[in-house]
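Session log. Operator J.P. requested a structure for one protein chain; no other inputs attached. Running the standard single-chain path with token output.
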Amino acid sequence: MTDYVVKTMNLSKKYKNNLVVDNLNLNIKRGEIYGFIGENGAGKSTTLRMLTGLSKPTSGKINLFGFDFESKSGNFRKRIGALIESPAFYPSMSAYENLEACRIQKGIPGKKSTDKLLEFVDLPNPSKKKVKNFSMGMKQKLGLAIALMGDPELLILDEPVNGLDPVGIVQMREKLKKLNSNKNMTIIISSHILGELYQLASCFGIIHRGKLIEELTLETLNKKCRRSLNIKTDNVEKAAVILEGKLNTSNFNVLPDKTIALYDYIDNPGKVSSALSRANVTVEQIMPTGQNLEDYFINLIGGLK
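Structure written below.
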């Protein structure tokens, strides 16, 4: 069994003279939640459409579950569920009827799967409310249910939290985490809400103007973006003793310029400053530093335009 569920080799897509995806090389391992990040027009949706067969690459190769995309031996289309852009529904049918139509189309026996999926995405059942009268959030939930029909190994989601309120976003996050942990489901998810993506993904791919400019794990991202309180004092050695003895932390480093990078108390610099001052250590500067995913992304692509 291959470790990689998705690999692309120099994947490109051109519309007329516009190169939307440019020699993309994705490497997504089994069981990962892969956060796909990029600006509008960066090529995210086009890439996801190519992975699901909704769009044909201009050049390059796609490998899914160890099989070439064009191969029939992998039978991989049945192993993929997707919610790309606006999902297609039967607007005059209920959520249950839409899911049943999907189940029958995919040749999945038994109606229990429909009931379970409606329960999983928190859509009322039975309900005669027609999909055309659904809110955007309810449509997103139904789209997720349809994507999950057949219990896919790979789930591809393009902006799945669009239209969801804050509670709905948290619920969506927890459901995706549950699918990943309980079923070892590999999930590719694009989102403009980078703070939410940071809480969900285990690795990230950053695309800019059609090019993949970085792939990194959550662990690597945290190392690059690690937040700290940077403290400059008149007595580094004494300050270190106070941090360990009075604030009960050794989670700090002394940098080459004699600045102390403290990785605790980041949101409570006053307590640190007070403890040092009481010990007659002069605090010349105390300043939080570090980046979140949003800051890191903006700096990586060259800042705000």
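Operator note: The chain has a mean pLDDT of 90.
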